User: Fold these one by one.
Assistant:
Number 1:
Amino acid sequence: CKLWTLDNIIMSNIGSSGRAAGGELEEKVDLTPETDAKLEQSAELAKSGQVKEALAMLAALEKRCRVGNDTSNLIRVCETS
């Protein structure tokens, strides 16, 4: 399990052109509503002692943001983790 830090995210994007394998631009998805809700849910889970569940939720959200090319929300999720 790799812990994503802001430095890891930046380094993994160096040399990335933002283009998919076929040369077309990758689609960017705005996951702000989902990110807002899940960050709040994960905070509540962590406060109630369910830290593993909170981290699992954040890990799934991190992947959705990364695959969806939503960098601003990806950074928010990683900073919260």
Number 2:
Amino acid sequence: HRLHLVSAAMADIASQLDPTHIVLVGDNIYENGAEGDLRTIQHVWYDSFPGAHGSLQRPWHMIQGNHDWRSDPTTQIEFTWSSLNQGGFWNLPGFWYSKRVAANDLTIDFFYVDTLVWTEGFSVLVEVGSRKSMAELKEQQKTWLEKELRESAADWKIVVGHQVMYGDSDHVSEAFGRMSDLNELLQKYEVPIWLNGHSHNQEVVQFKGITYITTGAGCKSKSMEICKEWDAATCNMFLPGPDTKKFFSYYGGFLSLTFLSKGTAELVIYGNSSSSVLFTYRIRNRDHRRWLDVPTPYTFLPKHSCGSINVLSASECCPEGCCRSVPDMHVTQSCTDFCEFSRLRCVSAAGIVRELPHTSLLCGMSELSTELNCSMLLGDIPSQYADLMCHCEPKQNEEES
């Protein structure tokens, strides 16, 4: 299993580098989060990492991803103070938080952002109860992050989230849509590094002074590279420009960041073994201003509407017709729930056998699998399916609306 190979390789590198801490970028517990059981975290995380390797017995700072939000996300927060948190290595004090660390006579501020809250993911509705509360929670986080970034006097600022800002793989690049305002804050406060998981690959994108790093290859292995060669019609959906992708790997692995000075950090990406160095890259700090006059190329703007109705919590809808989307759902939610949330009706639900790279590539596909019932809960889908695709359309008459 990839997880055990990566865990052993991480332990080897940790014994050599002696890092101040380890960052976990979400989807901490597959498939459906901790499901209210603290012992699940102990079994899945502790037994595989700090419990198995002494060199990994150091602080771990993490955020939560869409799989963690499939069940009660507060369980992973509560584990931070649980007696089951052996050694106190698990650190997740809230949905979002900051942590300052010192290394090589430098100060580094890490800002951990919950991107499911930021994008108002549909699964968040179960936790907060209403559309208004989802919007208010996002605004609280946004206000907090801007204040923290503005007041930080650290030598380096790093923002960590789960969903992809720019990436050439499994999931939509949220910088083009639901996280565009978050990306604007990174630029405004000259953040040099954005770090995310979500897609099960390793990738480096460099654009206008920010290095966007995807490191989601520690466990699952499903991934694909869309733009091996640049084709604007397709690649503008994923990347901000033809020369912005610096590295891509399908294979399992992890990375290290070493802060060498106030101006330079070294990124090293490893494969499944500690001897497998896949990529080394020097990151420049405060490199934004020389890009101010460089225009942003044309970028894909995802569709979020079905007729005149905005489809809430959809990362993207099909460009023609109405909405066919793969929402971030809780195990107690169905496609009927998702469509009704936007005052639409569910036409069909389909199980997705594997993670597909982009909603646009689903458009026009009449069947991904044997059609499932619109009312089927995510937690009840057959085991061969990883997710649900929901097809919504406007209600037929005013009585339904």
Number 3:
Amino acid sequence: TGSAGARRKRAMIEYVMLTGPTSTIECAHELGRLVAGRHLVVNLIPYNKTDVRDKLSCPPVEHVEAFRLIVSSYGVMCTVRRTMGSDIAGACGQLV
């Protein structure tokens, strides 16, 4: 029998990765400091472009990975959501 704390589930924060001021390296450090020491998972969601005219885009894969590593360096679990469904405009961020 384990303690209830050992089985405690982590809350998840979902963070959409958009090119611009919310995906800077400094932002990664700010997010890392904000969630450090908390029982959380940060899930980075790469933005999926649609045929809707907008100015939004996703940073390069290498930048998303660097962002993830920085957030993780603060001791919090940080993952990148795998992109699926973009070929049928049904991926995260594409349903409009």
Number 4:
Amino acid sequence: MCYDSGEDFAHDVLNSASGDYLAEFLRQVRCSLPATRTHRILLERCMKYVEEPLLTRDYVLRNKKDLGDIYKRKHGKQATGSWGVKKLIEKITEDVDEEALEDVSFEQDVMNTIVAQMCLPHLSDAAKEACEKGHEMEPVYSKHLMKLSKEKRIPLVIEDISSVGIVEKSGESQTKASVDRILGISEDGDSKLCLCEFKARVKQLQAQKEQDRIHLLRGNDLMGEDDIFVEMNADDPLSYLGIAKPDECLQVLHHAYTYSMSECLHAVGDTRELMSVCKMTFSQELLESYGRVLVLLYNAGLNIFYRDAADDDIDADDTEMKRIEKAVEKQKATFQEGMTRFEFNYRLVRKLLRPANLPLPPCSQILPFALGSWNIMKPSGDMITQMIWSANYHPPINNAQTALVKKLRIRFQCTRSIDCAKCCQDQDHSMISARSSPTVITCERIYRSGSL
């Protein structure tokens, strides 16, 4: 079916959607849900959002309290109590350039997202600890999954559990995935592979939310009282009970599409063992639709960063370069000196790697060079210090004091190396300004000395 506009397409999708899908749509666009959630009321709110102009779309379905908070964050003062919802929206959007807002293209939005994701956000100590704990639990979950299979508590005969790295979809170099485990299972006398993604809920509140989700599964007769396994189809209106978080559901869909499979396991556990295992099945129509979305994103901006084996360099025309510059400028607080620094590091890395015919590193490894000195002085969780931390140096006694000495010694060595690189800068490095990253200078010296 052909549509004259995206709004017509949205109308058709919403009119055919169930109440659960409409409620999920409102949650995804961060709109407050009505107290009475009948299908008619949910559909009216979704339609109101779609038909609203882009300038006010994010505010039209918010309540007065939320709008008051937005106004306070924007203007630094409380809103007048007599203002209604309509007046608050006018005050929030009165200084927004509507023409400039409408001129932002989809391709520019894609480029903004690409550039924004090139530098990983700084994680708090608690978040790092949670990530590490999640990785530590994967072998525990694998053993528990094998145990459940042997005890016949799940309808899977697991013969082997293996871990793999990044896998590229055949014929689509831009589509890659890294699944936690691949299971070798026996089904009707034949052996087949099954994908598995583990998720750890290491905090008590997270584990409690999973218990609530499992309770809802049992309340809807989707899972037995003593069961841990549930099999669902992604097209089922209640599929959100199988995988509650949209980003995790999308991740599982991406795994299935990359491996050209129609199903994937999503196993959730706490700090001890697995709590539930969901086998999510995806229809061929959904997989094909997801593939078209990836192609759309690839053609809208990702294609600039891919090249064929015969190409010497990435080819970007003036329009595409302007999109990159605008996106980098938008992230100047993160990238510091913006496009100038990015271009400098890009050209320097090319000069270092071209004689040895080595491939360019990912952009995420080029951009942080400008932050080299800052990264060195940060704790061991950071990029450069983390690389040095893996060096084969261990104190004879492992306790808190020797761990501190180890960290201080590594920091001292890093700092002294940078100071030496600064002092030894000579005419061979005249292309590097005084403000260049010491990390880049050190890399070039190591390369020229033939140590690589």
